[in-house]
Amino acid sequence: MRKFSTATAAALVAAALVLTGCTSHGATNSAKTGGTLTLLTSASTVSLDPASSQNLATTTLGLLDRRLTTWDVQPGKDAKVVPDLATDTGRVSDGGKTWTYTLKSGLKFSDGSPVTSADIKYGIERSFSDQLQGGLSYHKTLLVGGDTYTGPFNGQSLASIETPDAKTIVFHLDKPFGDWPWIVSMPAFSPVKESNGSPAAYKKAPITTGPYKVASINDGTSLTLVRNPYWSKATDDVRTASADKVVFLESQNPSTTVQNLINGTGQYADAFGLQYLGAADLASVTHNASAKSRLATSQAGPIQYLALNTQRGALKDLKVRQALEYAVDKQAYLVATGGPQAGTLASTLITPGIAGRQDYDLYPADASGDVAKAKSLFSQAGVDPTSLKLTLLTQNDDASLAQAQAIQQGLKRIGITVTLRPDDQNSFYTDVAASNPTFDLALMSWQPDFPSANSNISPLFDSSQIGNGNFNVSQYKNPAVDAAIAAAQAEVDPAKAQADWAAIDKQIMADAPVVPLIYAKQSFLRGSGVGNFFIPSFPAYPDYMTVTLGK
Amino acid sequence: MRIARLVTSRLVGVVLVLLVVTAITFVIFYLLPSNPAQLSCGKPCTPENLARAKQFLGLDLPWYGQFWEFLRGIVMGRTFGTGADAIVCNAPCFGYSFQLNTPVTELILTRFPVTASIAVGAAALWFVSGVAGGTIAAVWRRKAPDRAIMTVAIAGVSSPAYLVGMLLILLFGFTLGWLPTGGYEPFGDDPVQWFLHLLLPWTALAFISSAVYARLTRSELVEQLGLDYVRTARAKGLGEGAVVMRHGLRNALIPVVTLFGLDLGTLLGGAVISERVFSMQGLGALLLDSIGRLDLQVIVGITLFSAFLIAIANVVVDIVYGLIDPRVRAA
After folding, report:
1. What is the mean pLDDT of residues B226-237?
2. Phi then psi for A530, rounded to 5 degrees?
3. Whole-model pTM?
């Protein structure tokens, strides 16, 4: 998953003085192959091991590693799961508990050796090792025996992954899980050769299956990828691999990056930035017509919301929480975030771009709220809002504090006293993920790990996700919702599952554990030589797989 | 013999200082209300995985237990985890970054050349320009050169490093296009590019720090030039150049050298702001990143290394002090 501090997302978004209509999608007819694509990142290192990665399928590791499935993402269309190494997105049996995949023919590693199902099994098994923690781990709680398995380095194998032959792989799950095709698009489902499997060996020289392989690693400075001669476009419907070489320039100062891209000369013509733009940088871009035309902005991104701690004081009362749905001034929050270009007002839990999302608003009101309705609900609850003293947990950067103050002022209109509790980023994520939190309200942001409503809802509202580093920040417990989530997860018919999730969305919002605030927008800048650069409906990041050179 | 005793006693002091610094760093980060194991738990995180991560990272021990394991690792090496899954960190083990899958020693060794390149070049530049400026200002005190140099010095001393860095990038990188706007090129790959990439950070740091050296040199030299032994030297018929350089400056430099040693030692431990502004990944940037991701072992390793450099710089300054000033040796 990608954690977005409300602050960060807000700052960027706030920055987003542009957006709508700036997306520059469209396959470039003049796209060529060859050249060097430069990717500018502020990160000090690009982590290459898929076992410990939280990468989206459409970003960095997708250039190097193929998985059983991957994502087809487009602007204006919901993201779809499509086959990658496998011939299809999975054949289900045993009521959703067994999933079978067959590998395409002619798949090879970058050393020329064939890719087998055993290599995929080994790659998954590595992700269970203590040495390779920190990645997307949905499969670990789903595969039979995954809860006790500790990886392949001590000679143990995970029996719930079967490889009856070199091209077939079968997964046995603890419970039916309809989103398994999305799960096998995650980095841990990339094949890894056993001879290349030790973390130390892989880190220095990974053997890959994607269109590129590693040419050099200059830690902290650059990572250079060159073509993998054994990758075949004939087996890959998603990646276009336009450039001959891809260079990641690491540790880049964000402001310098933006200025270099605005100038767009030399290597920066064929480059784009991997971080979304902050407010100041976005302002610089919008003052430059050429640069502005090279800006790509998401239509919507992570949902930002106010989590209400459903286990504390007056917030245990449904009427009080529903009153807060009306009392919050979303308009002020949006303004504090950067205005209409920074996001759009939110009312649902499922974010735009996720298949099956239904737009609705259980608490219809003006953008600035409905104070009279809020007071009426407080009255029905028998609670005097002027007696309420609530603590709002927020991050301690300026952007987050401005947003928190907007919430504080909004609630003050009905007499609620809100005290801000600013935390640094690390402490914030420890505090919100605690089992017994000591705050009433928290400003949160969330982008799903994979484009399914499941990833929007279960991590935030399933009662099993309370505490222990998880993100049910509202401490929301509703056995009926838990059961509905379990049923929707088990549904293997995508259309039925989507309908289930849309119903759960409304079911949860009826309990008002959170106040959806905005769907944040994110903007990225490219050089003039980069083509087919767009932000799909989901995720709110450029699709690295289809970027071209020679526009 | 006296020098040997001086060095030995100073080195014992260094070890004690390092122990204290390490203990304080452990306590500070142990007391932080955050949980590094959470970052190694994966998404989603189960209570079992969280407990496993804590145990594997050694975070299930109290701070003094972690401290002891750290110290033991320096002398005897260390093993994280058990069986085939274990990570072996050979002595001297200064910790292991689980997030970067790299021993801390290796991280420091790969990042140190970047920081050293910045620090040594900048220090040489600021020392030479600062002392030269201070000397000129002292010799021509209250005249135009003095006023000009001191004005620049005040500007330098009052300028934040990031601002000077950004302005230099704007002027020489973006406007004139003469120099790279950032990044580091290893000396071994291309010495010319190495030099070109470092010119701006050197200049930025030198502009800021040479101001202090110029002011210090000026005030010390002005004082020295007014003392009796200088008057005696002049009375003996020595030329003004020899009086200033051989007598006045030599004595004026004693506090300047002390300051230089400490500054260089500090900068070698990480030029945090310059590295960030100029897109370089030295020890300073690595330290900031590590704090951001709660990579405690890297934080402790770099802190220890930086403290070591400062302590060693102190020892060297003490020794050099003795060489410059015979009265110190006699004492």
Report:
1. 82
2. -95, 130
3. 0.85
Among chain A residues, CA nearest to B175? A263
Chain A CA closest to residue B40: A134
Determine whether the interchain pair B52/A130 forms a contact, defined as Cβ–Cβ distance below 8 Å: yes
- Separation CA B173–CA B183 (nearest Å): 12
Whether the ipTM is more than 0.85: the answer is no
Residue A128, pLDDT > 60, answer yes
Nearest CA in chain B to A199: B101
Encode pLDDT of B234-278 as tens digits.
888 777 777 888 778 888 888 888 888 888 888 887 788 889 899
pLDDT given at position A535: 93
List CB contacts (< 8 A) between A271 and chain B. Answer: none
Q: Residue B1: pLDDT band by 50, 70, 90 thresholds?
A: low
Nearest-CA neighbor of A120 among A66, A82, A79, A78? Answer: A66
Radius of gyration of chain B (CA): 24
More confident position, B254 or A48: A48
Q: What is the pLDDT of residues B35-46, one digit of tens each?
A: 778 777 888 888
Residue B326 burial (10 A CB sphere; 0-12, 13-18, 19+): exposed
Percent of the residues in chain B that have a pLDDT greater than 90, as a whole number: 20
A58 or B273, which is more confident?
A58
Distance of alpha carbon A473 from alpha carbon A437, whole angstroms: 8
Chain B residues lying within 8 Å of A431, measured CB to CB: 33
Residue of A130, A219, A259 lying closest to B81 (CB–CB):
A130
Q: What is the 8-class DSSP label of residue A179?
A: T
What is the number of CB-based contacts under 8 A between chain A and chain B?
143
The C-alpha atoms of residue B155 and residue B283 are separated, in whole angstroms, by 28
Distance CA A281, CA A269 (A): 18
* Cβ neighbours for B81, distance < 8 A, ≥ 6 positions apart: A130, A131, B56, B87
> What are the backbone angles phi and psi of residue B15, rounded to the nearest 5°?
-60, -45
Q: What is the mean pLDDT of chain B?
A: 85
Phi, psi of A23 (to 5 degrees): -65, 140
A198-212, A386-400, A515-529, B132-146: range with lowest mean pLDDT: B132-146
In this structure, how many other beta carbons lie within 10 angstroms of the beta carbon of residue B71? 13
Q: What is the DSSP letter of A146?
A: T
Q: At A186, phi and psi to the nearest 5? A: -80, 160
Task: Give the pLDDT band (50/70/90) at residue B327.
Answer: low
- How confident is the model at residue A446, as a pLDDT? 94
Please tell me which residue of chain A has the smallest CA distance to B107: A219
* Chain A CB within 8 Å of residue B100 CB: yes
Concatenate the DSSP letters of all residues of A50-91 into one string.
GGG----TTSHHHHH---SEEEEEETTEEEEEEESSBSSS-E
Smallest Cβ distance to A430: which of B38, B102, B169?
B38
What is the least distance, in Å, from the CA of A430 to any CA of chain B?
Answer: 5
With beta carbons under 8 A apart, name residues in chain A contacting B52. 130, 133
Contact B33 A459 (CB under 8 A): no
pLDDT tens across A64-109, in order?
999 999 999 988 888 999 999 999 999 999 999 999 999 999 999 9
Other beta carbons within 10 angstroms of residue B24's beta carbon come to 12
Residue A199 and residue B182: Cβ atoms within 8 Å? no
Tokens for A467? 């505490």
Answer yes or no: do B41 and A430 touch at CB < 8 A.
Answer: no
Helix and strand tally (H, E) in chain A?
A: 17, 22
What's the full length of chain A, in residues? 551
> Across the interface, do A199 and B101 touch by the CB < 8 Å criterion?
yes
Two tokens, residue A249 = 């320039």
pLDDT, mean of residues B283-309 = 87
Residues of A in contact with B47 (CB under 8 A): 468
Which residues lie closer than 8 Å to A381 by C-beta, 6 or more apart?
A314, A317, A319, A320, A323
How many angstroms separate the most distant Cα atoms in chain B?
85
